[in-house]
Amino acid sequence: MGDIAIKFENISKQYRLGAIGTGTLSHDLNRWWIMNIQGKADPYLKIGQANDRENKSTSDYVWALKNINFEVKKGEVLGIIGKNGAGKSTLLKILSRVTTPSAGRIVAQGRIASLLEVGTGFHPEMTGRENIYMNGSIMGMTKAEITRKLDEIVDFAGVEKYLDTPVKRYSSGMTVRLGFAIAAYLEPEILVVDEVLAVGDAEFQKKAIGKMQDVSHQDGRTVLFVSHNMQAITNLCSRVVLLNKGTVVQDSNPLEVVRNYLMYETLKEGAIYWDQESALGDSTLKLIAIKILDQDNNIRSHFFSKFKIRIQLDFLINQLESDLVIGFDITNENGMIILRTYHNDNSPDSWPELKVGLNSIICELPGDFFNVGTYYISPKISLHFKKWIINSDPLLSFEVELNHGLSPFWNRITKSTRPGSLAMILPWHTNNLD
Amino acid sequence: MAKLIQDWDLVIEPKGSLFRLNLKEVWKYKDLLEMYIKRDIVTFYKQTILGPLWFFIQPVFTTIVFMFVFGGLAGISTDGIPQPLFYLSGICLWNYFSDSLLKTSDTFYTNQAVFGKVYFPRLIVPLSVTISGLLKMMIQFLLFAGVYIYFVSKGTLVAINSYALLFPVLIFILAGLALGFGIIISSMTTKYRDLKFLVAFAVQLWMYFTPVIYPLSVMEGNYKKYMWFIQANPLTAVLETFKYGFLGKGSFSWFALCYSVVFTIMLLLIGTWIFNRVERSFMDVV
Fold first, then answer.
1. What is the ipTM of this complex?
2. A271-401 belongs to which homologous superfamily?
3. Global pTM value
4. CB-neighbour burial class of residue A226 (10 A; exposed 0-12, middle 13-18, buried 19+)
5. To 10 degrees, the CA torsion angle through A47, A247, A86, A32?
6. Do A120 and B29 touch (CB under 8 A)?
7. How far, in Å, CA of B119 to CA of B123, rounded?
8. What architecture is domain A4-263?
């Protein structure tokens, strides 16, 4: 067992749906009677009911995780992917001992630090320095250890000027940087990262990813990484586990799992609709539909490359925020993000107008643009640099067949494929300067 | 195989062993305890004008009001002890108990954001509340000491006696009772919130069943039939012993004090046990 860092053995977790708590006093009493006095299993656990978001569950109890079995080797960077509700966060919560499994057990070697959400335990009234000590000790560091690491942490987070300023005066980016720095320098044997890279500027994200790589490659420590960013997953991880409805569906090398995930877990119809209950989003905004349309506004999922593709997002706004940014990522079949686009990328006078209530905005992707392949749309909606409203995995896909009509060297008849994610036709001309 | 299992640093299972108090872990996190105590104190008066003065304002005004209402209007005797000293000592002790109890009894609810994200022994939080409250009470005792010296210099006071050495025991009982009741209540309020309202109300009433505004002797004189009820209250011995030791008046009995100590220890054991059962899964029910 020498080289195993964590071992998940038949981990299952069951939740009760609906009412608050574990239910009524009578359920509790009944359960207590049967389990403790009669010595039988929990009568309200229904075996075999998977956590399926598409079908309405018949039982009040649902399995968030069911018989999870896998091992993580020391020094491995393991990615965990899956749709929302697949059980990723529950798994990490059990691992970081925030909650207990309903059955099974986890054994691990070494200290586990989790970055479920950075900045946990930050007290707004306390200074940066005080919060470093506070946060560090919450993660199990001793005072002496923190003092030794203080300079490095401050340096990494880039907050030396504000060290004695209360954290409430920090920007959200600074808070995240500080939080990540503390966890990264804690030097746990096992680091659990859940979507921390969500906020923060690009430069910091690079630093954070670099740090994660250092942690695993140089120091030989284990990282568990949960993300919706398929590109980060394929870049960082040496192995990926795919969860679906609380079970492990695939456990293999990153590229294979990511491809499989994109291929089987996204819709191919070209449109998704949500009802009020299941809609993605929060109290500010709820996404109710995504459609992939052709030039004549017909829903499609198969295109010739010369045609324009329109992506339509329908959403309800409850509260009009000035820093709302609405957009999506386009990912290719290897999980690499080709581009991210937002409705307000252009000059302010050309932004689509948003209003409280139902909005429907369209982004037009040009023709002669994509190469042959399958492309995936993941909606990304946020309050700029503050908070994600929707930070989704790829939800639906469209296929592109290469058909660039005009050149005899490159068209449908010659059928020649090109390397590259994009197949734009670019202007070429003679340089007439002399 | 058995040997292999022991090699794991961490084993996460649905249920821990029945009688694990987890105190070793609390010790491992003692630096965190220190940080929490520091936080409680530092953030208490941040962005206030009067700052630490607030520690004094509340007992001073409460004492004045008590002097008017209970000493003046109701005419309840203070056993010959100068009224300010009598009320001030009662208020300092009682306030510490009730503040700590009320604050610890919300532990899970108010800390769910932190508890939901990272693991550390949850007992750290109520412990820190009880300890930081202790510092506040000590500061308030400076006020008591001041008034005390004033009365000694005027020669109106029977001086301090050797029973004052029991002070640490009294503090232990107070802190232990506040913590014990607090963690039991906080364990129960995660599921059934009703308790929260009950507690605030019950603590208010509890003061009247404790010799805070009256000496035990007065109670004995008027309601002999209900004395057992007041005596069953583990706080009674604390207040009476304090007054006996520092002010020379009051009803002291070793039996009552021992009863309070035993009660406190039992309560702490049971409380820690319940708390540890709940902390493992409270995130699912809170």
1. 0.77
2. abc- transporter (atp binding component) like domain (2.70.50.60)
3. 0.72
4. buried
5. 30
6. no
7. 11
8. 3-Layer(aba) Sandwich (3.40)
pLDDT tier at B157 (50, 70, 90 boundaries)?
Answer: low
**Residue of chain B whose Cα is closest to the Cα of A192:** B118
DSSP-derived pairing of the beta strands A357-365 and A309-317:
antiparallel
CB within 8 A of B189, min separation 6: which ones? B105, B106, B108, B109, B195, B196, B199
pLDDT, tens digit (0-9, with 9 covering 90-100), for A34-51: 665 555 555 555 444 444
Report yes or no: A166 and A126 within 8 Å, Cβ to Cβ.
yes
- Burial pattern B176-189, b for ≥16 Cβ within 10 A else e, equals bbbbbbbbbbbbbb
The H or E element spanning position B74 is: none
Residue A123: closest C-alpha in chain B? B39
pLDDT bucket at B266, cuts 50 / 70 / 90: very high
User: Which residues of A touch chain B, with CB atoms under 8 Å apart?
Assistant: 1, 15, 21-22, 25, 28, 93-112, 114, 116-117, 120-121, 123, 125-126, 130, 133-134, 137-143, 166
Q: β-strands A324-332, A61-73: how paired?
A: unpaired
Residue ranges, comma separated, of all CATH 3.40.50.300 domains in chain A are: 4-263
CB B104 within 8 A of CB B186: yes
Start-to-end C-alpha separation, chain A: 73
Q: What share of chain A is helix, strand, coil (3-state, %, to 5)?
A: 25, 35, 40
**Which pair of structure tokens corresponds to residue A122?**
């930050």
Burial class (CB in 10 A: 0-12, 13-18, 19+), B215: buried
